[in-house]
Amino acid sequence: MQKALYNACKFCFLPLFFILFTTTFLHASSAKKYIKKYSETVKKLSDEYGIPVSVITAISLIESGAGESRNCKLLKNHFGIIGRNSLKKSQGIKSRFKEYKTDEDSFEHFCKVISRKKYYLKLKGNKNYKEWFDAMAKAGYSTTPDVWKYEMMRAVRSNKLDKLDKL
Predict the structure, then answer these.
(1) Which residue of 36, 103, 105, 146 sits 20 to 30 Å from the alpha carbon of 43, by its own alpha carbon?
(2) pLDDT tens, 96-130?
(3) This model's pTM is above 0.90
(4) Maximum CA pair distance of the chain?
């Protein structure tokens, strides 16, 4: 009986391991593709607005699910910004998120929104992503600031986004 149970578990473990490995690999792969796809846009906006590449990239990466979220695909909204859209009229889908004509418009609008915040002038040009995330969380960027900061920091570390700030 124990041997049969051991053999059954052995066969259950292999597919589970494969699924976990594949999911992790695919997520890392899609993150890398996303980062590469928008790197030029983010670098240009970082230079223009003084917001670190790591901050813009981490937030867009998480908020858009590496470009795979419904909002990103349907609305070209990479940051979860609320506003008007035409989904109800065009596709019968109700959404409170803002629609953009291009992906680049979404990135630029995010930078404009951030540039109007109180903390912006104090941090503009500062490449310390931790200070940006602290200030943004404190200012109410997210309804769950501690969780949000943790996710952003994890995105920076796991994708080595801080290295992009040094380029």
Answers:
(1) 146
(2) 999 999 999 999 999 999 999 999 999 999 999 99
(3) no
(4) 69
One-letter identity of residue 84: R
**Residues 54-108: tens digit of each pLDDT:** 999 999 999 999 999 999 999 999 999 999 999 888 888 889 999 999 999 999 9
Answer whether 71's CB lies under 8 Å from 64's CB. yes
Backbone angles phi, psi at 82, to 5 degrees: -85, 140
Structure token pair of residue 152 = 């952003």
What pLDDT, on a 0 to 100 scale, did the predictor assign at position 20?
38
DSSP 32-79: HHHHHHHHHHHHHHHHHH---HHHHHHHHHHHTTTTTSHHHHHH--SS
| C-alpha span between 24 and 157 (Å, rounded) | 16
Burial class (CB in 10 A: 0-12, 13-18, 19+), 43: middle
